[in-house]
Amino acid sequence: MKNITVKRVGILSIGKLAGTVNAIIALAVGIVAAIVGTVSYVTTTNDGIGAELVASLAIILSALILYPLVAFAFGWLYGALVALIFNVVVGVSGGVELTVEEEAVRVKK
User: Fold this and answer.
1) Of 1, 25, 79, 89, which sits with the fewest C-beta atoms within 10 Å of its C-beta?
2) Burial label, 99 (beta-carbon count in 10 A; 0-12, 13-18, 19+)
3) DSSP secondary structure string for all residues of 48-60
4) How many domains does the chain have?
5) What is the residue range of 87's domain?
């Protein structure tokens, strides 16, 4: 085993990671919201098939596109802020020690 010390993390990299995780979670939530919103709208209105179809399409697209985009933006900001604070704290404290284990590289034949 080998000890290494982390002195700094990439702010943009951590922001991108947090944003992507949030976007994936928001996509799952968006799928549920699209189904619930569409069923709710169609069962409670009598606007006609054309209006219901257009409204349903708008609900589905907004839930599947806007939810993940907004979640990615907020996740990115949160991740970047956490990474910035982490870098300041680690700079003052001297780093974070990690213990890693090296594995032998297997050669494919």
Assistant:
1) 1
2) exposed
3) -HHHHHHHHHHHH
4) 1
5) 2-100
82 C-beta neighbours (distance < 10 Å), count: 15
Question: Hey, what amino acid is at 50?
Answer: G
Please name the amino acid found at residue 42.
Answer: V
Residues 30-89 have pLDDT tens digits of 999 999 988 988 888 888 888 888 988 999 999 999 999 999 999 999 999 999 999 999
On whether residue 65 sits in a domain, the answer given is yes
CB 74 within 8 A of CB 26: no
Token pair of 42 as six digits: 């169609």
End-to-end, the C-alpha distance of the chain in Å comes to 28
**pTM of the predicted protein model:** 0.77
The Cα-based distances of 56 to 44, 70, 80, 99 in angstroms read 12, 20, 36, 52
Helix residue ranges, H only, the chain = 11-44, 49-61, 67-93
Residue 106 belongs to a domain: no
